[in-house]
Amino acid sequence: MDAKDFVRKPILRKTALWSLGILVGIGVLGFLAAPPLVKYFAQQKLSEMLHRPVTIEGIGINPYTLSASVRGFEMKERDGAGTAVKFDELAVNLQAESLVRGGFVLQEIRLANPYVHVVRNEDGTYNFTDLVEEILKQPPSEEPSRFSLNNIQLSGGRIDFDDRPLKARHAVTDMTLGVPFLSNLPSHVDIEVQPAFSAIIDGSRFAVGGEAKPFTETREASIDVHFGDFDLTRYVDYSPLPLPFKVPSGKLDSKLAVHFLQPQQGAPNLTVRGDLALKQLAITERGGAPVLDLPLLAVSLKSVDVFGRSAGVNSVAVQGPHLRLKRGKDGNLTLLSLLPQAPAAPQASEVAQPPAAKQPAAPFRFTVAEVKLSDGRIGFADEAVAPTFQSNVEALNLTVKNLGNAADQTANVEASLKTGAGEEIRHSGTLVISPLAAKGKVEVTGVKLPHYAPYYSSAVVAKLVSGSVDLATNFDVALDEKGPRVLLDALAVKLQDLALRHANEKEDFYRLAEANVTGGKVDLGARNVTIDEVVTRDAKLRVTRDKDGTLSVNRIFPVTAAAAGAAKAEEPWAVAIGKVTTQGYDILFEDRALPAPARLSLTGIQTTVENLSNQKGAQSKLTFDAKVKSTSAAA
Question: Can you give the pTM of this predicted structure?
């Protein structure tokens, strides 16, 4: 068809004219009408959202190339006195494939001569703290934003930092930044920027470079982040949010490699590999009381897939940590006050209707080949009991291998510790995170019962003069959809040198050389206890009846008022003991309530009880042997 034929066809002629008119209309709107409207509403809305005056010199929009630019942007301080943020130009180029990718795909982002003025006030807040707090109050997005940002370039950047508490000023000038791409969705954009960062920081030049491979079928870029002895104390006070603790010392080493990969087909990939080391870290309360000393925390990353939500860690090594724990009189650990506080729950009237159920995001998966903690120490003080309880954990060692949260992944756990009171704990077992389960063996030796008097003194009036406990058991603990499960097996308990004394007396009323429990099984869910054998030997008990008829054994426990109402009845525990044996018991009973006080002594007591149980219908067998002697108190 030639031009004459085209002109003779009315429908074709009208279609061409309409198409041309639409293109011209888009151009008129984009080049002439839209920019002043966007500028007006952008200045108004940004000023309202940021609580600071915002001005924009001009906005350019090219609807044909899908590009836009903002020129002469300036945001004043909240009081309008000085400049907080400004830049000469921000230019972006949107790709048409954004319409089919379900997210923004920007071919290029250029930021020219940005300037930021940061002020740390005398109270530790910043000139932008209110903005940070508003952002933190916002509920997290249920779905991650999808984006592909490419050819990111920053030139001529400057940051002025006014640290008023320290009366110091810092400047970062001549800042340049090149980022080939940041993406979590597939895109097809030509990459022309190499990864790089450079700046002059307080007069010293700093530069980091990398490598990009834009011409391969799979776009790649990598950057090395290497530094040593980075002093954290110079920057921790610059946290935009007030910290409830101090960091007197701490250094950081990094040998990380960051790798970007964007295949033509499939999701993008951002991985981090290498080593991080935190050294000579000290954390104290705001008042200066020490909380944590950590000589070394070293982490070796096999591969962390940021977008793939997975991490593989070769090793985590913690050497010589010293943690101080204190429970205040209110019953709360002071350590909890140093942790970030969860945001307050919204009021009932503010609670929105729950959105429609959505597919949950894939869980973050991790695996750690080895976690090793060596020579740890913990100091503990409990002011919630009287007198204040104090204890020290020493020689804390822990090794965990093959730790991860994949379904049924089993880690091997070995742990041991000693205390300042001479106790020792040893553990050997396994741990599964998903679903949560643990099993193994625990051995505890040398527990000095009098040391823990602050925890039981309110329940026992008699003084526990001496006594030590050894314990060993296998355990099987799990938490799944059926609820918690706690099983103990092969439980053995040994009690030695137990002595009890009444208040204001100088002699013990009860002494026990030794008691052994063997073959114990406990099922907390079924409320069931079975024991193969209980053997006690060489005990002496002195019982008196005072003139008012009170038995001395009634003074072992405090007198408590009757409960105001009956507690809800619980299923009773089922207890069964195969055999109970007592050997070498002596009991002296003195009755001072009689006109002529008398004494009754039982010596050489030997008893055996078989098949002891609290179940209905259970029958036990008892044998008893003792020597009896009765005399008057004056005899």
Answer: 0.72
